[in-house]
Amino acid sequence: MADTYNTLTLTLADGDVTIKLRPDLAPNHVARIAELANEGFYDGVVFHRVIPGFMAQGGDPTGTGTSGSDKPNLKQEFSKEPHVRGVCSMARTSDPNSANSQFFIVFDDARFLDSQYTVWGEVTDGMELIDALPKGEPPREPGKIVKARAE
């Protein structure tokens, strides 16, 4: 099922962000992201943690960074894929097998995360929209995913 999804589109207020999905790296994580996106789970969800020069994190329906979906957590699918600009990776707690729905998009080189977080995609278009997200932990008026869909 996971290999049938190639692209995730995040529609933000100012346009679309296109993400190439990487089932070759993380088939279970890609399947989960696609499933949640197509169920409408991410629609209206904010980027609750946006750190300049590091990353933008979203995927928590409460907007606090403390929650996820009602689906079971995922086992890690770490790879050697580097955490560089545009890479999409799963957020988790200190437990490597606790990824659920939260994810982050890397602004700059963050290779210190390599082999510790599951890379599941890469932004191919619209990275400037991620760059423009309001900054903060949380931002005063956070940027929002209007709609997310996987194809």
Automatic annotation (TrEMBL):
<comment type="function">
    <text>PPIases accelerate the folding of proteins. It catalyzes the cis-trans isomerization of proline imidic peptide bonds in oligopeptides.</text>
</comment>
<dbReference type="InterPro" id="IPR029000">
    <property type="entry name" value="Cyclophilin-like_dom_sf"/>
</dbReference>
<dbReference type="GO" id="GO:0003755">
    <property type="term" value="F:peptidyl-prolyl cis-trans isomerase activity"/>
</dbReference>
<protein>
    <recommendedName>
        <fullName>Peptidyl-prolyl cis-trans isomerase</fullName>
        <ecNumber>5.2.1.8</ecNumber>
    </recommendedName>
</protein>
<dbReference type="InterPro" id="IPR024936">
    <property type="entry name" value="Cyclophilin-type_PPIase"/>
</dbReference>
<feature type="domain" description="PPIase cyclophilin-type">
    <location>
        <begin position="4"/>
        <end position="135"/>
    </location>
</feature>
<comment type="similarity">
    <text>Belongs to the cyclophilin-type PPIase family.</text>
</comment>
<dbReference type="GO" id="GO:0006457">
    <property type="term" value="P:protein folding"/>
</dbReference>
<feature type="region of interest" description="Disordered">
    <location>
        <begin position="58"/>
        <end position="82"/>
    </location>
</feature>
<dbReference type="InterPro" id="IPR020892">
    <property type="entry name" value="Cyclophilin-type_PPIase_CS"/>
</dbReference>
<feature type="compositionally biased region" description="Basic and acidic residues">
    <location>
        <begin position="72"/>
        <end position="82"/>
    </location>
</feature>
<keyword id="KW-0413">Isomerase</keyword>
<dbReference type="InterPro" id="IPR044666">
    <property type="entry name" value="Cyclophilin_A-like"/>
</dbReference>
<dbReference type="InterPro" id="IPR002130">
    <property type="entry name" value="Cyclophilin-type_PPIase_dom"/>
</dbReference>
<dbReference type="Pfam" id="PF00160">
    <property type="entry name" value="Pro_isomerase"/>
</dbReference>
<keyword id="KW-0697">Rotamase</keyword>
